[in-house]
Design a protein that fits this description.
Elements: E1 3-6, E2 21-24, E3 27-33, H1 48-65, E4 73-80, H2 86-96, E5 104-109, E6 119-126
Parallel strand pairs: 4-5
Antiparallel strand pairs: 1-2, 2-3, 3-6, 4-6
Helix pairs in contact: 1-2
Length: 127
């Protein structure tokens, strides 16, 4: 199967040895995005709403670079440092991803995320 890295300057550069996304056949695997502003390279302030919106802007930029949008998402994984933020994140999530059927999803509380982020989200989308 042919694979191709997808990259855009409108989302943060990878902070490790990985691609922003990889196209494999009819699927796009988007690496976990944390709330880094690609224009400044800085993490959004420690506010779950601000950070969640930044993560979705980063994900949207990567999807658009691949010619997709949130309606193409089949699966998402949400990582939170505080599961008490779950309901706030759900409200914002639903404002970006509201296609039917809704994607499959998992959400986990983790002890820490890179650069002290409060949230990270990865996606799998279909062309």
């Amino acid at each position: 199967m042919e694979t191709k890295a997808i990259s855009t300057p409108n989302a943060p550069k990878a902070i490790g040895p990985y691609s922003q996304a990889v196209k494999a056949g009819d699927f796009l695997f988007v690496s976990g995005q944390i709330p880094i502003d690609p224009a400044t390279g800085l993490l959004e302030p420690a506010d779950i709403e601000l950070q969640t919106n930044r993560v979705f802007k980063n994900l949207e930029a990567i999807l658009e670079e691949a010619g997709l949008d949130f309606s193409s998402v089949l699966k998402s994984t949400v990582l939170l440092t505080d599961i008490d933020d779950f309901s706030k994140v759900n409200e914002i999530y639903a404002s970006y991803i509201n296609n039917h059927p809704l994607p499959a999803r998992a959400a986990f509380q983790v002890s820490a995320l890179p650069k002290g982020a409060l949230i990270e989200i990865e996606l799998i989308a279909h062309f």
